[in-house]
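> forwarded from #structure-qc
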């Protein structure tokens, strides 16, 4: 897991968050929602969007949604907000299992496909939190710097 990882009970949200409707059900839709949120923020603040930072945020959204679909029993919620100098991506799924990074080779020494998503999220995000949900499952929130 990420070194910055923390597990906690679901907090009360003090920051107004934009709920994406309809909720993305595929990684491509999650990327579109992130791109839209970041672009709207850049237009509203009259600041240029950092292409590399946006690319990082899109990759994190894609990896979190893919992991929820493949390993978490499907996405149950998706939220994206731009707060300060970062984009906050939250993906909820049905599984309470914590994410893990898999070794790149199996016990027989063969290279494994996949297993890179969680390390990518941990590398690109400045803060990653895994929160247990009262109804079961978890929410993973990653904040990716925008500059």
């Amino acid at each position: 897991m990420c070194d910055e990882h923390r597990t906690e009970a679901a907090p009360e949200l003090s920051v107004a968050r934009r709920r994406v409707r309809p909720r993305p059900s595929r990684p491509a839709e999650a990327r579109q929602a992130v791109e839209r949120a970041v672009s709207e923020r850049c237009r509203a603040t009259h600041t240029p969007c950092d292409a590399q930072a946006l690319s990082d945020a899109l990759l994190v959204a894609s990896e979190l949604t893919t992991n929820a679909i493949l390993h978490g029993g499907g996405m149950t919620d998706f939220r994206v907000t731009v707060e300060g100098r970062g984009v906050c991506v939250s993906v909820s799924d049905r599984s309470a299992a914590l994410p893990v990074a898999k070794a790149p080779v199996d016990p027989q020494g063969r290279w494994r496909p996949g297993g890179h998503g969680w390390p990518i999220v941990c590398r690109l995000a400045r803060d990653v939190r895994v929160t247990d949900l009262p109804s079961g499952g978890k929410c993973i929130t990653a904040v990716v710097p925008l500059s």
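QC bot note: Confidence is low (pLDDT under 50) at residues 3-16. The helical segments are 27-45, 51-71, 117-124.
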